[in-house]
UniProtKB/TrEMBL annotation:
Residues 308-363 form the HAMP domain. This is Sigma-B regulation protein RsbU (Phosphoserine phosphatase). PROSITE patterns: HAMP, PPM_2. It holds the Pfam family HAMP. Its EC number is 3.1.3.3.
Length: 639
């Protein structure tokens, strides 16, 4: 992706994120504002309901007082009816009742007898025990006797409000007004009516008024399970503040209701439609998306223009860098850009200077490389010539080392054998030797020098010479190894050592007398049963380690046809590609079936088995082995 595209994409993403964050913030703020507005509306409704209930009660009390005054006035008006008969009085009272919307008017004497009434033939229901309980007998007597001017008996159980005044002549007038006449006023000013008037205003769906025990006092609108808003009521009453939540797809607000003293006496629960909230959020989303697209379009246009302007110098320097890589750069190609006074001009000037310096250094470096290459070619020729000489000398030394080792055993019908040495490098440190000590004894040596290469080869030659010389002088293998060890310790500046096995085979008897200086014990293959057994160890120390060491001798009786296999650790410790060793166990397994094979075939079987096991892995050590088969004296073999 080019730099200009990255700039445009980065600008567009930044603008989109900014608008998205702004829309979310404004959405949350708008939602919070609506919630606070709804909570405020609920609080206002709660105050309106509380004040309406209080004003309704006050207005009813005032209305009842006015009614009482009116009744009293009517009673006084009726009191002015004088000089009429009982029948005329009854008719007059009936007219007053009809015009005033009253229930009844009675004129009674001091004995509580009905003198006249608006009912006409009304019997003396107020006489004696007939007076209703709610009309105090004493109050009636006080009115008739003139001790009281008026009395308000209040609403009775029969739904009539009675008021009485005294009349001349020890009489009293009782006026009754139906209480139901105030029901319309009470109903018109009741809280449920007000609540119903508030429905469908400001998305209000239902209103419920409860007391401080959450007992429902009044409601308007669809009913819902109390459990859906009980916690809101508890929160509003406990905190004395509005509590809100969105449930059942609607917005619920609970606000506390206070009495005149400011004490919470209940709560108003308002169920509102969340259409307004959803509409606001949808508008914010819609307008935010539109604004985002518009701003992104404008931003991308500006960013594209700016990116091209910014990227043009960068592209010029990129092209110059490619020309430098292709070695076709022309410094004057950046003159126009370098003439600018801004940061890009400074960068172009620095880049041009660096490019010129790089070109100059490359030319100088190429000259140095050509000179050094010529010198290296000359030195490589000398090294190759020296390597060829060293290789030729090593091959000559290898041939010389191979020529030092005997190729055949001394001719004797009592034994036969063969040997092989495969050095890991051009020259090896292993060696073997067999030589006739006299007409019936054969000296047998196999040894392994520590280390590899030229140093091991030289120490091998010294060790072979010393052992060969001591074997000619000493008839005992143990003494021979001891004298050889002392001689090697005396002339061993590199502190090398050699493991060696030296044995003397008596051709007449088949007895092998031997001593071992830290070498692998040979293996004997018996002709009688094909068993492969290890020649008993003597526990000797390697030669060249420390002087004045004694070496123990032991003897092994060979029978005609028995084979003696001597080897170095290059066979038993040969490793394959996985680092696994050939081991003595595998060697014994190979030798177990060779008792009837020729010595040459025995040697080939072992070397082939090692080669197959190692595979393509490099040879890690010299491989040396010696095979000798005791045949016995001719007469013994014939027998």
């Amino acid at each position: 992706m080019t730099l200009s595209r990255r700039l445009v994409l980065t600008t567009a993403i930044a603008i989109a994120l900014a608008i998205l964050v702004t829309s979310i913030v404004f959405g949350l703020l708008g939602r919070r504002a609506l919630v606070e507005q709804a909570e405020g509306q609920a609080a206002v409704v709660a105050r309106i309901i509380a004040e309406s209930a209080r004003l309704t009660e006050v207005s009813l009390e005032e209305t009842e007082a006015v009614v009482g005054d009116i009744l009293t006035s009517l009673a006084l008006t009726a009191d002015h009816i004088e000089g009429r008969t009982a029948a005329d009085l009854s008719d007059r009272l009936a007219e007053i009742v009809a015009r005033g919307g009253l229930d009844s008017i009675w004129l009674i004497d001091d004995q509580l007898n009905v003198v006249a009434s608006s009912i006409g033939g009304y019997s003396a229901v107020l006489r004696g025990e007939e007076v209703p309980v709610h009309l105090s007998r004493q109050a009636l007597l006080d009115l008739a006797s003139g001790e009281r001017y008026s009395a308000d008996f209040g609403p009775s159980t029969d739904g009539v409000h009675y008021v009485g005044v005294r009349a001349p002549g020890n009489r009293a007038i009782i006026v009754g007004q139906p209480v139901a006449a105030l029901d319309a006023v009470r109903e018109a000013n009741s809280v449920p009516v007000l609540m119903r008037e508030l429905l469908d205003r400001d998305n209000i769906i239902s209103i419920r008024v409860v007391d401080d025990t959450q007992k429902l006092l009044a409601s308007a609108g669809p009913q819902a399970e109390p459990a859906s808003y009980a916690d809101l009521i508890s929160g509003a009453i406990a905190t004395n503040a509005p509590s809100s939540a969105i449930r059942l797809g609607h917005f619920w607000v609970a606000a506390p209701i206070h009495d005149i003293a400011g004490i919470v006496i209940g709560a108003a629960v308002i169920e509102m439609s969340n259409h307004r909230l959803n509409h606001l959020l949808w508008n914010l989303l819609l307008y935010g998306t539109a604004a985002c697209l518009i701003v992104i379009a404008i931003g991308v246009t500006i960013a594209t223009f700016s990116a091209r302007r910014i990227a043009r110098p960068v592209e010029a320097m990129t092209q110059a860098a490619q020309q430098i890589d292709a070695r076709t750069f022309a410094p004057e190609s950046l003159d126009g850009l370098a003439a600018q006074s801004d940061e890009l001009g400074t960068l172009a000037r620095v880049f041009r200077h660096m490019a010129i310096e790089v070109q100059r250094r490359e030319e100088h470096l190429e000259q140095l490389v050509r000179a050094r290459t010529k010198e290296l070619e000359q030195k490589n020729q000398l090294l190759e010539e020296a390597a060829r000489r060293v290789e030729a000398e090593l091959m000559a030394a290898r041939s010389l080392q191979a020529a030092m080792l005997p190729q055949t055993l001394p001719a004797d019908p009592a034994f036969t054998g063969t040997a092989a040495m495969l050095p890991a490098r051009e020259m090896g440190g292993d060696f073997y030797d067999f030589f006739a000590l006299d007409d019936r004894r054969l000296g047998i040596v196999i040894a392994d020098v520590s280390g590899k290469g030229v140093s091991a080869a030289f120490f091998m030659a010294i060790s072979r010479t010393v052992l060969h010389a001591q074997a000619r002088e000493q008839a005992s293998p143990g003494i021979c190894l001891a004298r050889s060890n002392d001689a090697l310790c005396a002339q061993n500046p590199m502190e090398l050592f050699v493991t060696a096995f030296y044995g003397i085979l008596d051709a007449a008897t088949g007895q092998l007398t031997y001593a071992n200086g830290g070498h692998n014990p040979p293996l004997a293959v018996r002709r009688s049963d094909g068993v492969v057994e290890e020649v008993p160890r003597t526990g000797g120390l390697a030669l060249g380690v420390m002087p004045e060491v004694a070496y123990t001798e032991r003897t092994l009786q060979l029978q005609p046809g028995d084979t003696l296999f001597l080897y170095t650790d290059g066979i038993s410790e040969a490793m394959d590609g996985g680092g696994r060793e050939f081991t003595e166990a595998r060697l014994k397994s190979v030798l177990s079936g060779t008792d009837m094979q020729s010595v040459d075939l025995v040697l080939a079987s072992v070397t082939d088995a090692v080669s197959d096991f190692v595979g393509d892995a490099p040879q890690s050590d010299d491989i040396t082995c010696l095979v000798i088969r005791y045949l016995g004296q001719p007469e013994t073999a014939a027998a």
